[in-house]
Amino acid sequence: MTATCEEVEVQKCISRLTDNIKKLPVEELDKLERWVASSGKKVFSIKEAADVLNMRPDTIRKAIRAKTLKAFQINQMEAWRIPKEEIERFMGTDGE
After folding, report:
1. Alpha carbon of 16 to those of 58, 71, 83: distances in Å?
2. Dmax of the chain from CA atoms?
């Protein structure tokens, strides 16, 4: 069975991606692994965000208070929720 041009290109892309992943430092691999494991979620609790970002929950709370990490509460009695897009943004800035 002969592979189509599209299948060959996909295999080349996968090979390049695999090579690039192998070059990542261990801490970046850990971050990537946590992100992939949580990719189905739309919002995260403080603890979940801390796990994904490899930070302590207190650090996440401080970032929310400082408004460097956007989060919301349905009411004052509810726990904070952090949208996935905000975690992606925060990861891209390394928490700065």
Report:
1. 38, 36, 31
2. 62
Please tell me the distance from the alpha carbon of residue 46 to that of residue 30, in angstroms, as a whole number: 19
Is there a contact between 57 and 69 (Cβ–Cβ < 8 Å)? no
Task: Give start and end residues of each alpha helix (H) in the chain.
Answer: 5-22, 26-37, 46-53, 57-65, 84-92
CB atoms within 10 A of CB 31: 16
Please state, in angstroms and as integers, the Cα–Cα distance from residue 81 to each residue in 37, 60, 96, following that order. 18, 11, 20
pLDDT digits (tens, 9 = 90+) for 26-66: 777 777 777 666 667 788 999 999 988 889 999 999 999 99
Domain at 41-96, CATH class:
mainly alpha
Please indicate, yes or no, whether the overall pTM of this predicted structure exceeds 0.70: no
Inform me whether the pLDDT recorded for 16 exceeds 90.
no
Across the chain, what does the average pLDDT equal?
A: 82
